[in-house]
Amino acid sequence: MNSQWKIEVYRSWDEVDDAQFLKRWMDLLQTATDANVFAHPVLIKTWTDLYRKQQDISPLYCIAESNDATIFLPLVMWRRNWKNAFIKSITSSGYSDYDYHDPLVVGHLSTEMMHLFWQSIIDAANKGDLGSFDTAEFSGIRITGKQSGWKQSENCPYADLRQYKDYEQMFSGLSKNLRKDINKRKRQLNNLGEITFHVYEISELKQAIEGFPAFMREHEKKWPRAYKAPGFHESLLKNALPEGLVHYSQLRVDDRPISWELGFRYKDKAYSYMPVYLDYYRKYSPGKIHLSYLLEDCIKKGIGIFDFMRGDESYKTEWTSDQLSLYRYDMAGRGLSSHMRVTAQGMLNRIKNKASKHYVMVMFLNNYVQEVLNYQLFID
Fold it and tell me: Which of 115, 215, 263, 291 could form a disulfide with 145 if both were Cys (CB 3.0 to 4.6 A apart)?
């Protein structure tokens, strides 16, 4: 491990749930130079509190110190079941449910010091200081080291609202076709009923929860293959709306919701997380209209950045030409048993992507993987 960074690893839920640890975490968050909402204890604890009931995960929360600088990187060890070949993975708290996994950085760090931090984490993993693993994944990272293994993964469009004095100025800068379409669709919707834009306040948590299943049903229809951990998004709403972190809004026609957006707000940034609309109203472009209200609301409230997050879909890039890049670094565990489990996982994933008629083959591979585990000590 690089001697310029001293890393302490917290490995039990009792440690990271302790009130003193959470206070230190909040202090780091509030002092960090460029913290994003997904590093907030409320959001990460919402994810870990739910997933540790459903999955076998344990914390690997790393706090690195060097001179006057501190870095906090909350990782987890995830021990998967037979459907994933019993893979042991080191990954970020929040995994794919959250978009950004940058560590919290307190103090000014040079590019070289960030490089040495990541090298210390990589060295710790290779030496077994983070425990035995088959795969390790550092994803959703904006500021990387200079290691050759870093790869650009996704782009995240965002709108810089600080340059506009009001929404009208921003709207006038959009393409002519987009402006015409939004104005036309608004007129058409107004012929059906009164358009209203509603943002749920902290005092409306009960009402937000009552109507939330309708939003989740529509999202499931739109993205039927997207995995959603049971109860996770409901927990986000319950835990983070009272803290002012979740921003939940609806576009309504005569008080009937036709479009929803579950997003986040933190400091001067807005994050668009889960938008969806009723397919019946598709021809009226409710998503675009809803987005126009969201951006107008942000400018009125002094939000400086509207982050569309992962994926550079055309509906996002219509609103901005700005984007940031995300990177990932993947590691493989050492030893033949790790290699065999990763290989078996690849085979299982290919089969799971096909029809259920391959059930017998899946069970065969399950037995195969169990045999690998039985002989693991001899193999390694």
Answer: 115
Res 375 pLDDT > 70? no
DSSP bridge partners of 275: 261
Q: Quick one: CA torsion of 98, 100, 103, 105, rounded to 10 degrees?
A: -130
Distance CA 223, CA 334 (A): 37
Q: Which two tokens stand for residue 343?
A: 């290989």
pTM score of the predicted model: 0.89
Tens of pLDDT, residue by residue over 153-190, are: 999 999 999 999 999 999 999 999 999 999 999 999 99
- CA distances from residue 86 to 78, 197, 225, 238, 364 in whole angstroms, order as listed: 10, 47, 23, 33, 14
Residue 5 in 3-state DSSP? coil
Which domains are seen in the chain, by residue range?
Answer: 6-147 (3.40.630), 157-326 (3.40.630.30)
Provide the token pair at 154: 């996704």
List pLDDT tens digits, range 36-76.
Answer: 999 999 999 999 999 999 999 999 999 999 988 999 999 99
Q: How far apart are CA 310 and CA 287, in angstroms?
A: 17
Q: Who contacts 370 (Cβ-Cβ below 8 Å, separation ≥6)?
A: 82, 86
**Tokens 């358009």 found at:** 195
